[in-house]
């Protein structure tokens, strides 16, 4: 008869729908007719009949639905009390297990929250402005060399009014760093140094949102000349109070005469999440020494921002800018304008002459990914633990089931257990974070320079949702598995633990391995790249070079004092050489120009970067002169000579360095003769390719002294003391200096930070994986104790037993290693592509992490099993 | 008395169950409805109606213990009319009769 049965699925469907009492009768009826049709019309018709009529019962599913057997009421208060009691008893009974679980989960959650608020902070940059979504920054682009520059000439915005009607307002500012402010109090003058002072347009405060710290907002604060707006913290520092409108402040600046400004407004401090910073704003209309204002200088020193109309389309604005650029740049056909959404600047903009240090969106995304991976690992751990340990609970489950507990009730019980562990872990995680904050109270410490309030905002809601989702993720599977145990098997003693959960557990363990190995590979590559950038030969020697900043407060004898100090420096026996330049390596360039040779057409101009140097520059920094000659010092005509680097020579279209010697360059409305070519050196970080550089002779212009001292650490303090005492006697000001190499390396700050973070979080990932592994190995060993004991008694060596116990976990490890390596190759190649000078991925980058994790695994297996193997085996056989 | 009212189809099924006596199981009832009342109803509808009648207390059901090969060894679920079921169709019949008597012959002239 068996071959004449209707489709099995239909029978099962019927069985699912019907009360067991009714099923036999109804199924019998259907079968009877089925067989009739089978005899007369064949199998297909019979099957159709059966299926069609089975489906017919769906209409009545509510009528026929199974009656539930209710022996206990799952939501009675007594039962809930009982659940909680058993949960806490089982916690107490298995303290180590609960500890491992909470440790793993809380570390995972703490790391997640930490990274979460960091990522949120980074993504919140410039969002605090009321119109942040329609403020754009205008940039210059040189299409011939693919360079973009953040600053523009001051006349740009005036010209744009007609060209871009979408521009509602345009505002520009110019940042002056390390300015000194002078305040007169009770007849004495007090000087405050190292302040960032911006010259800003009168509509600056209406485009950007910097609220007043005072009761009444002065909307016209920057309109009048000689107006100054200061931030609240500066007001407190200068005057000890914030109501200081009407007071006078003198601005001292090395390049400008002392000018007095009237305070017209005090604003709240610039939020940390702003891509540009300032302590004070000066009216841009204020005339300079010659009567001209800064706006009249035709010079690329300004940041230009536009507030676009509501609903203005940035692509439409961009195309209008493209049309306008031809008219604006005239012969410089390669130049154009770029438009950056202000909120994108902090994470997505890395162009020349940025207003401050920006971050990299990919760093932030990498950390966000790490956060999720670590959290996932922590949950996987929990799932692994609780299903593996479920055999311990089997008796309880069996007894509960026999006494009439339904699956749903058991699920609820185990789910509540998970929720309790999760919530405890969240509490511990928050405590951990507070402890961490106590340990690193400094603003500079890795993560804590931002506001914790972000956790309580909208993003905090997401955080809570994620953690709740985590409870479900980690709770559902164990609850379903454990509630499905067969009580008969458990109570008769034939229950062998969880057979069907093993593939899932293997998958989870492999996933953890993969994540850990991936993170270690990434950290290793980041470490190598950062190290490479720090150690690579720069083409110049900046070790043991000291930059002595010159004082801001200058009197009429300043020129004279400069000569005296230089003379004293030269007299000091230990000073190897002295030089000066308009900027130092690691500080970007002085400015950029559009240049061409006199043989080239006007349309062939392209962007070059200018640095003003003296005749000692090449020897002092040990730059390599490839062709031609060095500057000869302050002799006649040297100011119209320039030295190029190789990149500049190539950009001008010359194939050999000799060809360019003697050619005339045209820029800044003047002719310059090329007298020499130097080898490319790393003026900026190794992220950047070599820029086309022009070294011009600035002669007597001295912005700083660059002093080379012997490489002798024991004498360094002595050298510094001599430099300082001489500086103090000559200038009567505090000594101000920095070591150039350290300064150069601050360019890698964000990379070093990434390295630290990825190192820390790889370590945490390994830690969580190790917790998981310890639990898993212990579980495997206890399950196979009898087997191990028998093998041991029959003469198996300890080594052999070890192999048997660790084989599976090692295979999983290797598979995960390969998967992690494959995943990381693409990811890391992408990351490395951002560096102009980079390391190549090698096999070692993948082998070392895999072997490391393998080693940790073996160690854990070894430790755990040696404990077992040292015990007397006969005990376990008897059991 | 809501819940004890008989629908038209329910009355038909109840009458057929009563008439089949000891032979009333799902498939048989369906066939009887087809041959006597010329109505094509699906087996699920028949069972649903039987189930409802049972809930109203007009029917009881019991498995007979003879195993029948053509039913794959499944027993038949035999339905019987209960006393209250019988009273219910009886009352229905009397109500109809008395109503018919009222009509007399005049109505059709």
Account of the protein in words:
The complex is a heterodimer of chains A (879) and B (109). Chain A has 28 helices and 21 strands. By secondary structure, chain A is of the alpha+beta class. Chain A has a 6-stranded mixed barrel. A 6-stranded mixed barrel of chain A has the order 13-14-19-16-18-17. Chain A starts with 7 loop residues before the first helix and ends with a helix. The mean pLDDT of chain A is 85. By secondary structure, chain B is mainly alpha-helical. Chain B is built from 4 helices and 2 strands. Chain B has a two-stranded antiparallel sheet with strand order 1-2. In chain B, helix 2 crosses helix 3. The radius of gyration of chain B is 16 Å and the shape is elongated. In chain B, 28% of the residues are buried. The interface between A and B is medium-sized, with 22 and 22 residues.
Summarize the structure.
Chain A is of the alpha+beta class and 879 residues long. Chain A is 51% helix and 16% strand.
């Amino acid at each position: 008869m068996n071959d004449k049965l209707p489709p099995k699925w239909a029978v099962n469907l019927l069985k699912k729908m019907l009360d067991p009492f009714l099923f036999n009768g109804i199924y019998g009826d259907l079968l009877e007719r089925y067989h009739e049709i089978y005899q007369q019309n064949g199998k297909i018709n019979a099957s159709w009949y059966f299926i069609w009529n089975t489906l017919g019962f769906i209409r009545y599913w509510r009528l026929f639905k199974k009656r539930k057997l209710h022996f206990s009421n799952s939501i009675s208060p007594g039962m809930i009390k009982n659940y909680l009691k058993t949960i806490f008893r089982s916690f107490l009974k298995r303290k180590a297990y609960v500890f491992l679980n909470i440790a793993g989960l809380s570390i995972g959650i703490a790391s997640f929250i930490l990274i979460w608020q960091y990522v949120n902070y980074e993504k919140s940059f410039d969002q605090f402005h009321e119109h942040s979504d329609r403020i754009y920054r205008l940039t210059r682009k040189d299409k011939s060399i693919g360079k973009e520059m953040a600053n523009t000439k001051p006349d740009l915005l005036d010209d744009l009014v007609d060209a871009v009607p979408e521009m509602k307002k345009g505002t520009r500012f110019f940042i002056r760093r390390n300015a000194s402010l002078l305040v007169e109090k009770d007849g004495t003058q007090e000087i405050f140094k190292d302040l960032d002072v911006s010259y800003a347009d009168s509509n600056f405060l209406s485009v950007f949102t910097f609220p007043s710290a005072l009761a009444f907002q002065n909307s016209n604060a920057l309109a009048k000349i000689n107006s100054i707006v200061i931030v609240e913290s500066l007001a407190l520092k200068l005057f000890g109070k914030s109501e200081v409108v009407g007071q006078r402040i003198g601005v001292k600046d090395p390049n400008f005469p002392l000018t007095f400004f009237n305070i017209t407004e005090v604003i709240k401090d610039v939020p940390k999440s702003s891509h540009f910073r300032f302590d004070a704003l000066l009216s841009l209309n204020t005339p300079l020494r010659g009567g001209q204002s800064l706006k009249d200088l035709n010079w690329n020193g300004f940041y230009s921002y536009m507030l676009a109309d509501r609903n203005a389309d940035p692509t439409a604005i961009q195309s209008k800018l493209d049309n306008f650029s031809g008219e604006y740049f005239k012969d410089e056909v390669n130049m154009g304008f770029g438009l950056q959404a202000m909120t994108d600047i902090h994470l997505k903009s890395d162009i020349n002459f940025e207003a401050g240090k920006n971050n990299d969106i990919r760093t932030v995304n990498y950390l966000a990914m790490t956060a999720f991976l670590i959290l996932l690992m922590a949950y996987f751990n929990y799932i692994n633990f609780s299903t593996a340990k479920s055999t311990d609970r089997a008796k309880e489950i069996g007894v509960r089931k026999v006494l009439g507990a339904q699956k749903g009730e058991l699920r609820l019980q185990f789910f509540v257990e998970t929720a309790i562990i999760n919530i405890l872990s969240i509490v511990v995680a928050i405590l951990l974070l507070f402890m961490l904050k106590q340990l690193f109270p400094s603003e500079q410490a890795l993560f804590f320079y931002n506001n914790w309030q972000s956790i309580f905002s909208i993003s905090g809601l997401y955080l809570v949702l994620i953690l709740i989702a985590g409870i479900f993720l980690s709770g559902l599977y164990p609850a379903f598995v454990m509630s499905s145990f067969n009580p008969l098997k458990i109570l008769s003693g034939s229950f062998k633990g969880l057979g069907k959960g093993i593939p899932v557990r293997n998958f989870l363990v492999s996933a953890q391995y993969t994540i850990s190995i991936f993170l270690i590979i990434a950290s290793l590559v980041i470490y190598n790249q950062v190290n490479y950038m720090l150690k690579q030969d720069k083409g110049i020697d900046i070790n043991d070079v000291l930059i002595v900043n010159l004082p801001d407060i200058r009197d009429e004898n300043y020129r004279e004092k400069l000569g005296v100090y230089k003379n004293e420096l030269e007299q000091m026996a230990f000073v190897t050489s002295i030089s000066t330049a308009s900027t130092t390596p690691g500080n970007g360039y002085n400015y950029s120009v559009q240049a061409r040779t006199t043989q080239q057409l006007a349309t062939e101009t392209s962007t070059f970067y200018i640095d003003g140097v003296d005749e000692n520059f090449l020897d002092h920094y040990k730059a390599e002169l490839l062709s031609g000659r060095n500057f000869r010092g302050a002799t006649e005509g040297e100011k119209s000579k320039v030295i190029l680097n190789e990149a500049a020579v190539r950009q001008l279209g010359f194939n050999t360095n000799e060809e360019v010697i003697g050619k005339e360059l045209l820029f800044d409305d003047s002719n310059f003769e090329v007298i020499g070519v130097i080898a490319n050196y790393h003026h900026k970080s190794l992220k950047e390719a070599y820029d086309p550089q022009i070294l011009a002779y600035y002669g007597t212009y001295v912005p700083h002294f660059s002093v080379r001292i012997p490489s002798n650490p024991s004498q360094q303090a002595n050298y510094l003391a001599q430099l300082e005492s001489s500086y103090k006697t000559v200038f009567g000001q505090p000594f101000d200096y920095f070591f150039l190499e350290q300064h150069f390396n601050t360019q890698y700050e964000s990379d070093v930070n990434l390295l630290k973070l990825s190192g820390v979080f790889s370590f945490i990932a390994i830690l969580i994986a190790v917790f998981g592994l310890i639990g898993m190995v212990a579980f495997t060993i206890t399950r196979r104790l009898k087997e191990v004991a028998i093998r041991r008694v029959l003469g198996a060596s300890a080594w052999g037993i070890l192999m048997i116990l660790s084989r599976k976990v090692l295979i999983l490890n290797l598979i995960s290693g390969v998967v992690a390596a494959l995943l990381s190759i693409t990811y890391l190649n992408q990351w490395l592509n951002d560096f102009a000078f980079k390391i190549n991925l090698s096999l070692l980058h993948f082998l070392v992490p895999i072997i490391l994790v393998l080693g940790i695994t073996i160690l854990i297996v070894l430790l755990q099993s040696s404990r077992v193997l040292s015990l007397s085996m006969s005990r376990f056989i008897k059991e | 008395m809501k819940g004890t009212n008989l629908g038209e189809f329910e009355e038909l099924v109840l009458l057929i169950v009563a008439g089949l006596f000891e032979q009333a199981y799902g498939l048989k009832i369906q066939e009887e409805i087809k041959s006597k009342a010329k109505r094509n109803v699906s087996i699920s509808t028949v069972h649903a109606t039987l189930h409802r009648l049972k809930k109203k207390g007009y029917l009881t059901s019991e498995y007979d213990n003879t195993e029948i090969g053509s039913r794959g060894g499944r027993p038949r679920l035999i339905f019987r009319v209960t006393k209250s079921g019988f009273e219910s169709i009886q009352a229905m019949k009397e109500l109809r009769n008395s109503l018919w008597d009222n009509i007399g012959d005049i109505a059709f002239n």
